[in-house]
Design brief:
This protein is mostly helical. Helix content is 63%, strand content 5%.
Length: 432
């Protein structure tokens, strides 16, 4: 991922220094287990920890000749460890190192993403309670529907990211597995207790049955979860982009002093953060299909998955980390305009109360189809001619026979639509 959309802590996970450090720990912990089992001398295991180190440039130079990254690493490691290096990597295969390392890196990335989600959730909760009863227009198909509150809008997004957090926790647990099982996963040349020891030291679970690799359905699930999180980010971003439109003007990204919206038009205040989030979400979701396609591999393994993961693992996690941080900042500083919400609510002369009138007429004995037609003809006149909906209803003789003018007026109470806000908030946020 390019630096523009990268944050240092996540980027460090995918840098060579961290990768080779994990490789070293895998090999060194495996040596400890082998020594405890009497397979290699204890002095050899101690030598690996004491003298073992690596140089990235040297590994790259060796790989240019060997065309094999793990061999290049082991060769460089041996240059420091000395004769005892012959006991390193006993009974292991390259994928034991590569897959276990990837599991560690993805778990590290998940931990950062979980912290990012916590910040997003905190921001959404704060703003949701702030606008718990700020009445606004609910829309379906982009068209005015019935009143809701801005707090309920935010509560819905909070619930989505709360689900995302639970899914990511589960995906982290599923991906954090260790495989040190040898060439085709049979433990023919290495004791399963070595795998168990390395797994414990690295905070991983043991892969129950591996081939030469950890099964890629685990990785597919991990990236699928990242894709769903990205979808929730875009869902929120689209909402802000619509609400910031000049014709709506109900919410707006914070516009900093000195910020410029357009090189040509000085008046412009564009939803650039939300648009950026939409684009980043597309990038993260782009990792999902390749991860799914990696599940199907030849026999005990091939390497068709390898090049895919070397790209999507850093890019998807780095992009999502950046996007979640940007989203949290957007929510924290989001500018909200209740007056504009009220203005838009009143734009069509009370049409948003049409369902209440329909229900009142059916309760008063009118057939539903007849009631619908009666309300709709008045609604269409109010819509097309910008007339007062309540006034039209009062003047309609068919409606007046069933619901009196005073009763009609009572049906236009906005408070009716906020009666269950507390119930919904308790469902989302609990009683605390």
């Amino acid at each position: 991922m390019i630096p523009r959309y990268s944050r240092p802590e996540m980027t460090r996970i995918w840098e060579p220094e961290n990768r080779f450090r994990i490789w070293f720990e895998i090999e060194a912990h495996a040596c400890d287990a082998q020594a405890a089992l009497g397979v290699i001398p204890k002095s050899a295991a101690k030598a690996v920890w004491k003298r073992g180190k690596f140089e990235i440039d040297r590994i790259d130079a060796i790989e240019r000749e060997t065309k094999h990254d793990v061999i290049a690493f082991l060769t460089n490691l041996a240059e420091h460890v000395g004769p005892e290096a012959r006991f390193v990597h006993q009974g292991m295969t390259s994928s034991d190192v590569l897959d276990t390392c990837l599991a560690v890196q993805l778990a590290q990335a998940a931990d950062l993403l979980l912290a990012d989600l916590d910040r997003v959730l905190k921001a959404l909760k704060k703003r949701a309670f702030e606008h718990k009863f700020t009445v606004t227009m609910g829309r379906s198909h982009g068209i005015h529907a019935e009143p809701t509150t801005f707090g309920l809008k935010l509560a819905g997004h909070y619930a989505a990211f709360d689900r995302a957090k639970r899914r990511l926790r589960a995906a982290r647990a599923e991906i954090a597995t260790c495989a040190i099982s040898g060439a085709v996963g049979t433990f023919a040349n290495i004791d399963p207790r070595v795998e168990a020891h390395v797994a414990k030291k690295l905070g991983l679970a043991v892969e129950p049955v591996s081939t030469q690799i950890i099964p890629r359905d685990r990785h597919a699930m991990f990236f699928a979860v990242l894709g769903v999180i990205a979808g929730s980010i875009e869902n929120f971003a689209i909402e802000i982009r619509h609400l910031q439109r000049s014709e709506v003007g109900e919410a707006e990204e914070f516009f900093a002093p000195g910020q410029k919206g357009s090189s040509a038009m000085p008046h412009k205040r564009n939803p650039v953060l939300s648009e950026n989030l939409t684009g980043l979400a597309r990038l993260v979701r782009g990792a999902v299909v390749p991860a799914l396609e990696n599940v199907a591999l030849w026999h005990e393994r091939d390497i068709s998955h390898s090049s895919v993961e070397r790209v999507i693992a850093p890019d998807a996690t780095v992009a999502l980390d950046f996007a979640l941080a940007r989203l949290a900042g957007l929510v924290e500083k989001l500018v909200i305009y209740p007056a504009a919400m009220t203005r838009n609510l009143e734009l069509f002369g009370g049409l948003v109360h049409s369902q209440r009138v329909l229900l009142a007429l059916t309760q008063a004995g009118m057939a539903r189809e007849a009631a619908y037609q009666a309300v709709q003809r008045n609604a269409m006149e109010a819509w097309q001619k910008r007339k007062d909906f309540l006034g039209l209803l009062k003047a309609d003789k068919e409606i007046a026979r069933h619901v009196k003018p005073k009763a009609l007026e009572a049906l236009f109470d906005l408070g009716y639509h906020t009666r269950q806000v507390e119930t919904i908030f308790k469902r989302v946020f609990g009683k605390g």
